[in-house]
Amino acid sequence: MTEETPGFEEKPDVPSGATPEDAEPKAASPSSEGAAAPAGDASAQNAGLVAQLDQVRTALDERTLDLQRLQAEYQNYRRRVERDRIAVKEIAIASLLTELLPVLDDIGRAREHGELVGGFKSVAESLETVAAKMGLQQFGKEGEPFDPTIHEALMHSYAPDVTETTCVAILQPGYRFGERTIRPARVAVAEPQPGAQTVKAEESTEAGDDKENGGPDEG
């Protein structure tokens, strides 16, 4: 019998003329196709990420525009609500002040006749103060030009000393609240005397002629 020598390992058969390195297994080297494949996958992945980023940006821009539109609509809504609230408040105050006008007229007549005395005077003045604080304004004065938008002519006459239609008497004062005329001033008006303007124009023309000619002739 043949005894095996310890530590002896069998080696693969090596053909004659071959070197020992030929007998060792070689690691498979990656082919050019295998190396090109990962690079192609990375490019495709990057292109996909860029496309997704563009979609996200587009969606973000759309949501931003929607938000801006909503904010603009909300601001317009708030302005409309505030404008309507102010209008309703003004209408309510104007209605209340309109109901007080006859009382204020009575107070005015009592003051003209010297009847505004004692406790009645204190109450009347307090009422007028409250009305003024609420924004009520009285208007209408003698001698001011007649304005049909704020005056109501109840009497009409002619006067030689006016050059335009003029309020010569205030029969009932007018009242306004803010820009709103609650009641026009009821007045008596006077117009220039017919023919007076023609005479004045002729006198002005004659005076001008005298100045040009060196004045009137002296006897």
Automatic annotation (TrEMBL):
Broad class of the protein's primary localization: cytoplasm
InterPro entries the record matches: GrpE (IPR000740), GrpE_CC (IPR013805), GrpE_head (IPR009012)
Region (Disordered): 1-44, 187-219
Key words, A-Z: Chaperone, Coiled coil, Cytoplasm, Stress response
The keyword Cell membrane is annotated on this UniProt entry: no
Coiled-coil segments: 53-87
Skewed-composition ranges (Basic and acidic residues): 200-219
Top-level taxon in the UniProt lineage: Bacteria
Subcellular localization: Cytoplasm
Pfam families: GrpE
SUPFAM superfamilies: Coiled-coil domain of nucleotide exchange factor GrpE, Head domain of nucleotide exchange factor GrpE
CDD domains per the UniProt record, alphabetical: GrpE (cd00446)
Keyword Disulfide bond: no
Bias-annotated ranges (Low complexity): 26-44
PROSITE patterns recorded: GRPE (PS01071)
General function of this protein: Participates actively in the response to hyperosmotic and heat shock by preventing the aggregation of stress-denatured proteins, in association with DnaK and GrpE. It is the nucleotide exchange factor for DnaK and may function as a thermosensor. Unfolded proteins bind initially to DnaJ; upon interaction with the DnaJ-bound protein, DnaK hydrolyzes its bound ATP, resulting in the formation of a stable complex. GrpE releases ADP from DnaK; ATP binding to DnaK triggers the release of the substrate protein, thus completing the reaction cycle.
Subunit and interaction comment: Homodimer.
Family listed: Belongs to the GrpE family.
HAMAP family: GrpE
Protein name from the UniProt record: Protein GrpE
Protein's organism: Streptomyces gibsoniae
